[in-house]
Specification:
two-stranded antiparallel ribbon; 5-stranded mixed beta sheet; alpha+beta; globular; 167 residues
Amino acid sequence: MKREVQALIDAVADDKIEHFTAETTQAKFFADPDGTMAPLAAFMRDQIGEDNLAQASLKLTDTEASVRLELSVINLPLQDTKTVGKIMETDEERELNVYAVIETPDINVSGLRIDALAPATTYVEQAATADQSLHDWLGLQIEKLQAAETNKEATDVKKPAADTKKK
């Protein structure tokens, strides 16, 4: 599945992308990441089969986190397509890939992690392998988030109680 870079940029700007949105809690996501992401993966496969550009989002309702699957020509979030036009030849036709995106302040300094899972056609034709890649990727992100939570608790500096005695 290919797209001209400018056609992708225009489609994003004109919101000519198929969207799917789901919600869950962080606890449910951590307990069953594959299950919570399965509807997003199925949606992406359907859209690839119909030759549509697509974005599927999972919002964790009790945190500032979201996880997405996106079809794109480069590992930048779709909302950054203006940057794509600055770093790529816009008249080139490029292969579309499925990217996994997580946005949360706790993932890293930038608050964003994006990685390619597979070329769009491979994502459909080799679904089991693609699902394993997503499973592995989700596991790594959850480990990072859990470590950040643990480290935050261990390193938070507690303010001392106000000293009421005068010296």
